[in-house]
């Protein structure tokens, strides 16, 4: 097979289905020749001069039309096919040899090519002819590693009749059982209805079969796959796994069944000892992940996760969700909370689901509930498929509106402009999203800690704990094995980060004492995020706007972007600052705006209240946290509280005294008198003097008794002071001992992991020999 005009740095990969790979590969070669030799001679396309960024531009593909992603291009062509009356199919693609990413994709009419009938093949049933060699297609290419996608080839004409509008819903690429329909099918199926009865209800609810969006066969297939989500033959395998884990770790492993433990249709929850300990360290922000169950994988698996001190996903327990009623979610959340020792999280993130939301309100009434914006973004293609098809740039604009808004007013104006521009003011789903905006749009959630570092500065990435281990081929029978592999992989990655943090000194980029301090406190990954904020302050100017004595307000803006300013309020006495971006409240790291103010007012090191223990190297030193830290902070907290209380009283006193000359004179005299009394109180008390007056003979015995009591009190006071000093000495020793124990524990863990990895490498080498 020849591959003319294929760059050496690229590989051709076949992704067609059925018996079409050879024809597709040959056609790929022809396409290359065609594109190189006759780039502008194809008469089967439209090439308007207007840009597709205009919502009113043509809805027909044309060469040069741009998209933000391959998926957007495919969705656009499929929506175009729905309007015209044909079905689409993803054909071959071209991958880069450098990173195996797709750099070219062909999407064809579903009737493209011909089916191959192998020689001497006598089929049991004769299939109707569906492939007739239609040439209609588009080819999209990627502009560079990070560039957009554009149409490099478009063939418009078909060699077959197109389907009328009232039959388009029967075509394969336009049939989809969406989220709302799935919920209704599940409910009706549980009530005992068959596919025909369910379709009758759906047709009535949708206002006609044309509006349902799929056929009876699709409904039957979904109901069949839904039935397979029960444990079935995997029942005993799961029970054996839970029993084995409970025997190996009786005090740490926790599991529970909803209802009858022998039933294969009830929900199951479990959490091992590591998951429960992880929650003690990092349980302030929790994610309940239903992506595997409700996404394309259809696996009834839902983990509770969070973020560890390296910013990596960390596990807090898992559930097999075979029933998704409100009572089931209430049971699950209650059981999970019991496993986590009754400690409620600060925040929890879930899918956007009315039933889950109701269960969260019942079990976590004081926890901030956030809908996953990734769930919302995923619904855009499904709910607004026609809009995305006509205007492929809509999806990226929608994401920018959500991710990049820094203030509520900015989001509100961007949203209003977006829905107005694309004439979506009456769209019911967007109206619902807007009503619920306080639960999924980041700008409304920044006053609560979610620990999501990926959301800082509009970052648009997401990862799940078991990514790469659970997919569409995962069954309940293989789930447990994949679960164990995923947990082991995450543990190894955490140990590696611990090792790198302990043994790799970060490169400092400034002479700042604050940077050096943070490098010794934070883990490697978290320090890199902090360092980014610190270095960025060099481009920011902090201007004092208001000085109210106890609190100062600064306007902080980047050079050249003075119109996008943030405001920082700084409490002079408490040395606490709050920024309008609320990055510290949301992610637990000080933002560049506060650091710019610190630079101006000569705060050279981070105050302790800005260092969250969960992001530090000692995040897992729970013993130190509960024991020595309490001893260490007891006196400091008393001193700090007294200092803060006096500071507030004095500032109030000073502000009243400075109102006029009269009040100033009175206040100054009062301060001087108070200073004398404080100085007298600090002097050591004189020893009591015994009275020897002859006129008070009747009171000599009582005076002697008082003197003895004073002496006794003095002795006890001295003894108490000695005991306090000894306790302080013991506390310091205990603090040092515990700190050394934690460091030794970390080193031993790293060494053990290194030995294990080395042994594994040696075994692999021996087996290869």
Summarize the structure.
The chain is an alpha+beta fold.
Keywords:
7-stranded mixed sheet; disordered N terminus; globular; 769 residues; alpha+beta; 6-stranded antiparallel sheet; 47% helix
Question: How would you summarize the topology of this molecule?
Answer:
Layout: E1 10-13, H1 21-37, E2 66-67, H2 70-84, E3 88-96, E4 102-109, E5 137-142, E6 149-155, H3 179-190, H4 195-206, H5 216-227, H6 235-248, E7 254-257, E8 268-271, H7 273-282, E9 285-288, H8 291-294, E10 301-307, E11 313-320, H9 326-339, E12 347-350, H10 354-363, E13 368-371, H11 373-383, H12 385-390, H13 394-403, H14 408-421, H15 428-435, H16 476-503, H17 513-521, H18 524-536, E14 540-547, E15 551-558, E16 566-571, E17 576-579, H19 583-587, H20 592-600, H21 622-626, H22 628-657, H23 661-682, H24 700-768
Parallel strand pairs: 9-12, 12-13
Antiparallel strand pairs: 1-3, 2-6, 3-4, 4-5, 5-6, 7-8, 8-11, 9-10, 10-11, 14-15, 15-16, 16-17
Helix pairs in contact: 3-5, 4-5, 9-10, 13-14, 16-24, 17-18, 22-23, 22-24
């Amino acid at each position: 097979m020849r591959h003319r005009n294929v760059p050496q740095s690229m590989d051709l990969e076949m992704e067609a289905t059925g018996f079409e790979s050879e024809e597709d590969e040959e056609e790929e070669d022809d396409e290359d020749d065609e594109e190189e030799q006759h780039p502008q001679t194809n008469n089967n396309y439209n090439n308007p001069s207007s840009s597709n960024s205009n919502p009113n531009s043509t809805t027909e593909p044309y060469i040069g039309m741009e998209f933000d992603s391959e998926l957007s291009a495919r969705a656009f062509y499929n929506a175009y096919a729905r309007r015209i009356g044909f079905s689409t199919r993803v054909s071959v693609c071209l991958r880069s040899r450098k990173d195996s990413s797709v750099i070219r994709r062909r999407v064809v009419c579903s009737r493209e090519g011909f089916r191959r009938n192998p020689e001497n093949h006598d089929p049991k049933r004769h299939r109707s002819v569906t492939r007739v060699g239609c040439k209609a297609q588009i080819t999209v290419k990627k502009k560079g590693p990070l560039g957009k996608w554009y149409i490099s080839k478009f063939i418009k004409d078909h060699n077959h009749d197109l389907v009328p509008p009232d039959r388009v819903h029967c075509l394969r690429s336009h049939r989809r059982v969406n989220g709302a329909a799935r919920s209704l099918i599940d409910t009706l199926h549980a009530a005992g209805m068959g596919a025909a009865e369910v379709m009758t209800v759906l047709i009535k609810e949708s206002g006609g079969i044309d509006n349902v969006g799929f056929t009876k066969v699709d409904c039957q297939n979904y109901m069949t796959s839904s039935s397979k989500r029960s444990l079935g033959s995997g029942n005993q395998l799961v029970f054996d796994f839970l029993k084995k884990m409970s025997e190996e770790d009786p005090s740490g492993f926790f599991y529970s069944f909803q209802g009858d433990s022998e039933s294969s249709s009830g929900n199951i929850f479990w959490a091992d000892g590591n998951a429960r300990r992880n929650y003690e360290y990092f349980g302030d922000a929790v994610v309940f992940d239903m992506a595997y169950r409700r996404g394309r994988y259809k696996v009834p698996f839902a983990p509770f996760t969070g973020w560890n001190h390296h910013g990596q996903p960390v596990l807090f327990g898992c559930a097999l969700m075979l029933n998704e009623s409100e009572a089931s979610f209430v049971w699950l959340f209650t059981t999970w909370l019991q496993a986590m020792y009754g400690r409620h999280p600060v925040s929890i993130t879930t899918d956007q689901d009315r039933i889950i939301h109701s269960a969260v309100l019942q079990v976590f009434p004081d926890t901030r509930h956030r809908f996953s914006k990734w769930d919302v973004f995923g619904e855009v293609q499904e709910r607004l498929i026609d809009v995305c098809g006509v205007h492929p740039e809509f999806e990226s604009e929608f994401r920018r509106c959500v991710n990049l808004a820094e203030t509520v007013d900015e989001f509100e104006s961007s949203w209003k402009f977006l829905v107005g521009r694309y004439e979506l003011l009456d769209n019911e789903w967007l109206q619902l999203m807007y009503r619920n905006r306080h639960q999924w749009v980041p700008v409304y959630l920044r006053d609560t800690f979610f620990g999501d570092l990926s959301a800082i500065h509009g970052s648009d990435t997401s990862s799940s704990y078991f990514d790469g281990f659970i997919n569409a081929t995962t069954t309940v029978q293989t789930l447990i094995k994949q679960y164990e592999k995923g947990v082991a992989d995450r543990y190894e990655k955490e140990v590696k980060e611990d090792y790198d943090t302990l043994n790799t000194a970060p490169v400092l980029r400034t002479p700042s004492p604050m940077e050096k301090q943070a490098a010794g406190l934070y883990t490697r990954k978290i320090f890199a995020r902090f360092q980014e904020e610190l270095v960025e302050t060099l481009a920011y100017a902090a201007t004092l706007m208001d000085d109210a004595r106890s609190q100062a307000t600064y306007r902080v803006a980047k050079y050249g972007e003075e119109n996008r300013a943030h405001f920082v309020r700084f409490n002079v006495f408490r040395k606490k600052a709050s920024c309008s971006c609320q990055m510290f409240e949301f992610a637990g790291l000080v933002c560049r705006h506060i650091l710019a103010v610190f630079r101006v007012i000569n705060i050279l090191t981070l105050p302790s209240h800005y260092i969250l223990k969960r992001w530090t190297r000692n995040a897992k030193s729970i013993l130190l946290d509960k024991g020595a830290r309490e001893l260490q902070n007891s006196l400091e907290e008393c001193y700090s509280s007294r200092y803060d209380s006096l500071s507030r009283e004095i500032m109030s006193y000073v502000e009243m005294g400075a109102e006029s000359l009269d009040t100033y004179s009175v206040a100054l005299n009062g301060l001087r008198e108070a200073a004398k009394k404080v100085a007298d109180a600090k002097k050591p008390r004189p020893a009591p003097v015994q009275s020897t007056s002859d006129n008070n003979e009747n009171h000599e015995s009582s005076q002697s008794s008082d003197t003895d009591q004073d002496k006794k009190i003095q002795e006890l006071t001295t003894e108490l002071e000695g005991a306090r000093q000894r306790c302080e000495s013991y506390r310091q020793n205990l603090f040092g001992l515990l700190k050394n124990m934690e460091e030794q524990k970390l080193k031993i863990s790293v060494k053990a992991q290194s030995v294990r990895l080395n042994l594994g490498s040696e075994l692999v080498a021996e087996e290869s020999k």
